[in-house]
Amino acid sequence: QVQLVESGGGLVQAGGSLRLSCAASGSIFAIMGWYRQAPGKPRDLVATITNDGRTNYADSVKGRFTISRDNAKNTVYLQMNSLKPEDTAVYYCGVFTIHGTPYWGQGTQVTVSS
After folding, report:
1. What values do phi and psi take at 59, rounded to 5?
2. What integer is the mean pLDDT of 88-102?
3. Strand pairing of 102-104 and 108-113?
4. Which is it for the CA torsion 96, 6, 43, 62, positive or negative?
5. Distances (CA, A) of 99 to 4, 29, 77, 96
6. Are 108 and 88 in contact (CB under 8 A)?
7. Is 100 exposed, middle or buried (0-12, 13-18, 19+ CB in 10 A)?
8. 26-30 — which CB contacts under 8 Å span 24+ positions?
């Protein structure tokens, strides 16, 4: 049974930083990542990382966010710096098994005040 435990969301002023964590268990995950959904908008990719360390970022977060993972702990992190009000959203951890099956975390709120 796959379980995802997210942590690290919260309220921060513009220009500040937050770090999200997602601890996964129950399978081997080829890809781990973060997605976000603002009110009234679809869920969008923020960043992903493969089990051999290849990363992919949305253009809107390049240079500000950094994704990393600890394979021994099956944990993925998202370091978010220089946060902007438009980064406000519910952030979801998304993982994909080696067979491509997706699993989603429950989401953590990130609010950036101006």
Report:
1. -55, -35
2. 96
3. unpaired
4. negative
5. 18, 9, 22, 8
6. no
7. exposed
8. 26/1, 26/2, 27/2, 27/97, 27/103, 28/97, 28/98, 29/74, 29/95, 29/96, 29/97, 29/98, 30/96, 30/97, 30/98, 30/100
Question: CB–CB of 20/80 below 8 Å?
Answer: yes
pLDDT tens digits for range 7-53: 999 999 999 999 999 999 999 899 999 999 999 999 999 999 999 99
Q: What is the full DSSP assignment across 3-61?
A: EEEEE--EEEETT--EEEEEEEESS-EEEEEEEEE-TTS--EEEEEEETT--EEE-GGG
φ, ψ of residue 87 to 5 degrees: the values are -85, -5
Nearest partner of 74 among 8, 7, 3, judged by Cα: 3
- Distance between CA atoms of 102 and 33, rounded to whole angstroms? 11
